[in-house]
Predict the structure.
Amino acid sequence: MNQPVMTIAGSDPSGGAGIQADLKTFTTLGVYGAAVITALTAQNTQGVFGSIVVDPAFIALQIQRVLEDIPIRFIKTGMLANAEVITTVADNLPQDTFLVCDPVMYAKSGYPLLEKEAITTLKEELISRARVLTPNYPELAELLGDVFIPENAEESGKRLFQAYPNLQALVVKGGHRSPVGNQVEDILLWREGTTIHTKKVYHPYIKTQNTHGTGCTLASAITAYLARHENLENALVKAIDYVAFLIQKTQQETYGKGHGPLPH
Ligand code: PLP
């Protein structure tokens, strides 16, 4: 039997990102998903129009009551809004949690999904516990304290491994970058003992504005494949392939007037 998984993230009522994208991904990939909501957003494919953060004590209650009933090892985090929420989540993760952390900072429209002052707390309390991290290039720069977006993701990734001894794998998402030729390049790094392996994964560049929720979907797909007992390298590659497959499918299936969701 596949293991159950949990997402701890924000709600996107338009169904493209956040908790909704996570649950769709879990279900499509055949994994049972629990979902703890950290914030409500009011958004559609055209932008985010507001957000309300759930009381941290109530976030703690959600995590505790679910986990005492359904033991879950694979947990994915997304939008965490502020430092208090991050501390609450970190304090309530069981010791043996396998944490897949999507270090969500901004929506594609530029709306902040994490207070800027909370980045230090995110690094110290959550990323320090994460086994898998899925930053895009701007998030990678932010996590390393770099002013410029990194040119060499492999070098930057290795610096993250040095800073976070618990970290086992990193996917640097190429979606924000210009395609290499007509290919999008994602860079995977994973650690086995003292060896750091790197692998570049390419997919055809598809000109579409329907990429809302791709980050949430990737991190959830990694979590789901791990719960399906895939090894780390396979989980990362299969999750990237899953997102690429959905981006290609958006050419036939489009919702909304803005950045449309992935059709799972
Ligand atoms: N809204 C919520 C609630 C999210 O958790 C996320 C996750 O990253 C997003 C929006 C961002 O989606 P996008 O980057 O596609 O705008």
Residues 9-12, 17-18, 41, 78-79, 104, 107-108, 113, 212-213, 215-216 surround pyridoxal-5'-phosphate (CB under 6 Å).
